[in-house]
Amino acid sequence: ADAKNYPWSEDSKILFGEVLIDDDTELPETLQYIEGTVYFTGREIKSDIADRLIDVKQGKVVAEHIKYFKDPDYVHIAERLIEEGYIDVLAYNLYNFSDLNPSIADKIIEAGAGWNIPGCLLSFTDLNHPYIVDKLIDAGLGYVVVDSLEKYTGLDYAGVADRLIEAGEGESVANNLSKFTNLNSGVALHLIEAGKSNRVAANLNCFTKLTPIVAQLLIKNGYPDYVKQYLSSFDTLPEDVHKEIEKQFEHRIDFPKTLLSK
Question: Which residues does the chain have with pLDDT short of 50?
């Protein structure tokens, strides 16, 4: 059926395949969804029809077309979608929703579908970002946290880095150090022990109050010039460390700094 061939009135209607839906339509227990057969016309659709469509197993249609409904109760619709097993559909279409409460985010993450939450933070209200970050890491989505780190507020970056490393995402942290600030010696030492001295050296400006042992390890591993350049990232270094830095420059052949990125 073609929507434009129907004699539409000014009332809001949905053409769903061959079924014309309005406020009075009695729906069967299920409707067969065929891609491209959903049409909306007239005024906005009353929000209670969203519930009725979910009742007949059409949660996907509701999530994808929620903008057509008048004053939808986003929280209620999201909860209905979750209850009826459409949590992946909800996660994929989060950008269509707004004013969702934090409990919806919790349920989505706990169901293993939290991958899209970082890209749709504005769909939620009163979201505690540090809490959500912890939940995502616990759910095995640490890499998603790192990819979207700049979208969160109120984070303790050193604590987040520690949690990510504990969760096996040390590689993600090492490759994205420039997204962090105020990292500590614990993070630096873990990455150095994991063979990432080059990443630590190249991003020393992201660290603060580093201990002498970090400086000594970086010098030992061939990065005295970076220690010298970023002395402000360290606590006061003892004289023997300063002497070791200068000693490294006495008989040294400099290699291109681009090697640090390899």
Answer: 1-13, 17-20, 28-37, 262
For 53, the enclosing helix (H) or strand (E) is: helix 48-55
- The helix or strand, by DSSP H or E, that contains position 40, with its residue range, turns out to be strand 38-41
- Per-residue confidence (pLDDT) for residue 26, from 0 to 100: 57
Phi-psi group of 232: left, alpha or beta (phi > 0 → left; psi -120 to 50 → alpha; rest → beta) = alpha
Contact (CB, 8 A) for 241 and 212:
yes
E-strand ranges in 172-244 read: none
Q: Alpha-carbon Rg of the chain, whole angstroms?
A: 27
Residue carrying the six token digits 């700094």: 257
The tokens describing 2, both together, are 């073609």
Cα 117 to Cα 124: distance, rounded to the nearest angstrom: 9
Angle formed at CA 260 by CA 163 and CA 182, multiple of 5 degrees: 35
pLDDT at residue 16 in the model:
53
The two structure tokens encoding residue 106: 């919790």
**Could you give the CA distance from residue 160 to residue 133 in angstroms, rounded to a whole number?**
8
Give the torsion sign (CA, 33, 35, 37, 42): positive
The pLDDT value recorded for residue 45 is 72
DSSP states of 212-229 as a string? Answer: HHHHHHHHHTT-HHHHHH
CA distance 165 to 175: 12
pLDDT of residue 189: 97
Q: Give the integer Cα–Cα distance in Å for 215 and 219.
A: 6
Supply angle C-alpha 105, 124, 150, rounded to 5.
Answer: 90
Cα 206 to Cα 86: distance, rounded to the nearest angstrom: 41
On whether the CB atoms of residues 14 and 21 are closer than 8 A, the answer is yes
Q: Do the Cβ atoms of 103 and 132 come closer than 8 Å?
A: no
